[in-house]
Amino acid sequence: MKNTFPRIIVYFVLIMAILTGCSKKPPAPKVDTEAIKKLRETMSMGNYSESIKLAREITSQVPPNSNAGEGLYLLGYLLAYYKVDFQAARLPLKQLLDLYPTGTQAADAQKLLADCQYWQGHYQSAGREYKKLLSSFGDRGYYSYAQYQQGNCLLLDDKVGDAITVFRDLVEKSPNDPLAGSAQLIIANSFLKLQNINKAKTELRKLISFTKDQDLQQTAQKALRQIEGEENEPKKAGNQE
Asked: CA 185 to CA 117: how far, in whole Å?
């Protein structure tokens, strides 16, 4: 059989890895003091340079005041999403987690810190940060995301077997989660990478059987047909001879 994989799976996995790793949601509103309120208003107007200046003013006060935790998170958020300076964004996020490890912004800060490492291509470091997100804040709605991103980090670090284990754990523990179907598709793709075609077909059939996502179902069905078509090509050629 030719050493080729269904392109549609590969493209889908790459797109999902990029989109998931780059997921962004606006910072959740908190109880604002005047300084934080002004910062948020400046952000809402799209004046990000001024917002960064205000955030630095809030977070540079010694000793830290009651706004410090939220100010540090918003500074990291601005540096990551609007300056696209992931290295710089990590500093206030780490500072927040050191000062307020169980604070209101800690879970979001840990996620963004892991994402910054991921976006920089530091997959081993990112994997460790996602593990922290899972262990410390998995019960705050980050379990599936942290698990999924751990799997992506392992896959991008060419640790395919370990990645399969992590993705399978996500699928088995949270089969109804929106990320479970994508994780199952990556499992199938990973077996293709390992040249285990029969196992890949089994995993595609499993995905078709449980996902309610029509796009995923169609992707898996198309990939399965493509694999089976490639398997039949040598037989057809042999019959012609």
From this structure: 24
